[in-house]
């Protein structure tokens, strides 16, 4: 390839917090490994999600000499888009931004000082392939969750398109599917809810998977030692482009907002013995109704373990879950008085700072992939309690395939639109916490071993570092 001053990559993440954070860390990794690479991260707004809007505003001063942010202007037509559910609305809004992306690619292509290396799109931004094709530049997928889940959605897409199977027929089935990227047969009830939708959503979701096969390459936020089985399966699939496992991609520095609340939490942890605290946190959208909250409280109290519990109330539209106003009314009578010596209930949790603290010995989690990778990075074993999206699949993989987590539930599913839902009883929660905190549990040793492997993977000579080098080399060969 002729010598050039810059190779420009355009990175288009889905406008959701977890996806945005991972995209920024990916950009840092790429620019750290190759001084020719410059990256423009395009940020888009979703009208119904003010949290993302506020986060995008906070990025305005985060540009560096080689990573820059372009906030795509508000699209007036997007406010008029009507869709039957938030998933379809989001995709229609993303479609409305195509012209903005087209203009940015044209500007780069007309530059005399740089070469457009391609675009990297998030798992829900596959429509941008059309724009890249207009400029005859390659499109790469950045898959922000597990290799096993990627294999699962590709398999479901194949069942639909190659074998004419209607996935909605599986709803409420007790059967199992043989998914090549999982070691064990996968129960139908842990598949993402959207695949059972009898409307348009299921087909739209699987159409994304179909377009994954059109990519020039697939970058996954995982690492070889963690998901060797799934990655081997993907690599051997001749219908797929090259797969690059470059994780764990994490912001392990955590929040820079060291306010009084964070200081109070960390000071409390400083007073606790090593590995003695069970940490309960369910992500930015994680909340439970009052009856379930009481069952968790009973379980914690009866278990006798020290605990740090991030407790959130249901969000208002366009918001994430927020803090409860009066916890005394919500929790069992006398709970605070009885647990004052061993427990602390908080609102928002500085998750990275908590997981990295030596006092924390276990993590009750919704199994979001960012949270899972953080838990592995800091060597904290998990108890699974998934809520939505791909989290049931993550929980299944952690408990059954990897044997790196204990189960509270695997198939729990949060229904955000129902007035009532299934309740996990206190004795089941308590049993899971006891298994989690058992110092003799083999899960604890496996997680500690994987902690070391996760750190080796990303340093020079490690599997993920090398995989990133392969991606950069292949990308440069493509544009030469």
UniProtKB/TrEMBL annotation:
PANTHER family reported in the protein's UniProt record = GLYCOSYLTRANSFERASE (PTHR48048:SF45)
Please identify the protein, giving its name as recorded: Glycosyltransferase
Origin organism is Catharanthus roseus (Madagascar periwinkle)
Gene Ontology MF: a single term = UDP-glucosyltransferase activity
Q: Name the domain of life this protein comes from.
A: Eukaryota
CDD domains from the UniProt entry: GT1_Gtf-like (cd03784)
Q: Which family does it belong to?
A: Belongs to the UDP-glycosyltransferase family.
Keywords assigned: Glycosyltransferase, Transferase
Its organism's taxonomic lineage begins at:
Eukaryota, Viridiplantae, Streptophyta, Embryophyta, Tracheophyta
EC assignment: 2.4.1.-
């Amino acid at each position: 390839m002729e010598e050039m001053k810059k190779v420009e990559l355009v990175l288009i993440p889905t406008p959701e917090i977890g996806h945005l954070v991972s995209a920024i860390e990916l950009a840092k990794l790429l620019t750290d490994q190759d001084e020719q690479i410059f990256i423009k991260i395009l940020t888009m707004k979703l009208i119904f999600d003010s949290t993302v809007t506020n986060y995008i505003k906070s990025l305005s001063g985060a540009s560096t000499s080689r990573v820059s942010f372009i906030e795509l202007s508000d699209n007036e037509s997007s406010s008029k888009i009507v869709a039957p559910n938030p998933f379809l609305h989001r995709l229609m809004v993303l479609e409305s931004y195509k012209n903005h992306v087209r203009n940015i690619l044209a500007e780069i292509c007309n530059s005399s000082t740089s070469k457009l290396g391609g675009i990297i799109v998030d798992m829900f931004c596959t429509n941008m392939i059309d724009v890249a094709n207009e400029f005859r530049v390659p499109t790469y997928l950045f898959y922000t969750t597990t290799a096993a889940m990627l294999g699962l959605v590709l398999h479901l897409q194949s069942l639909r398109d190659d074998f004419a199977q209607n996935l909605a027929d599986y709803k409420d089935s007790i059967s199992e599917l043989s998914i090549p990227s999982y070691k064990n047969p996968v129960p139908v009830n842990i598949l993402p809810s959207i695949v059972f939708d009898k409307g348009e959503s299921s087909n739209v979701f699987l159409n994304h998977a179909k377009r994954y096969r059109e990519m020039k390459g697939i970058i996954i936020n995982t690492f070889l030692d963690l998901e060797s089985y799934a990655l081997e399966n993907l690599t051997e699939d001749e219908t797929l482009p090259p797969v690059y496992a470059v994780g764990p991609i994490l912001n392990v520095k955590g929040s820079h907002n060291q306010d009084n609340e964070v200081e109070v939490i960390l000071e409390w942890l400083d007073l606790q013995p090593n590995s003695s605290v069970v940490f309960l946190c369910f992500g930015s959208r994680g909340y439970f109704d009052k009856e379930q909250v009481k069952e968790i409280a009973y379980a914690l109290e009866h278990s006798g373990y020290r605990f740090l519990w991030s407790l959130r109330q249901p969000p208002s539209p366009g918001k994430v879950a927020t803090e409860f106003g009066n916890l005394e009314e919500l929790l069992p009578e006398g709970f605070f008085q009885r647990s004052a010596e061993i427990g602390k209930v908080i609102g928002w949790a500085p998750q990275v700072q908590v997981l990295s603290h030596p006092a924390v010995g276990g993590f009750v989690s919704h199994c979001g992939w960012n949270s899972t990778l953080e838990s592995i990075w800091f060597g904290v074993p998990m108890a699974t309690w998934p809520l939505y999206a791909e989290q049931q699949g993550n929980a299944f993989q952690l408990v059954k395939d990897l044997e790196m987590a204990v189960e509270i539930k695997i198939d729990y599913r949060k229904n955000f639109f129902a007035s009532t839902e299934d309740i996990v009883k206190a004795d089941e929660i308590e049993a899971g916490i006891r298994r989690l905190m058992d110092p003799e549990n083999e899960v604890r040793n496996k997680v500690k071993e994987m902690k070391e492997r996760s750190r080796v993977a990303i340093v020079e000579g490690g599997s993920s570092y090398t995989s990133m080098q392969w991606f950069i080399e292949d990308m440069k060969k493509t544009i030469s």
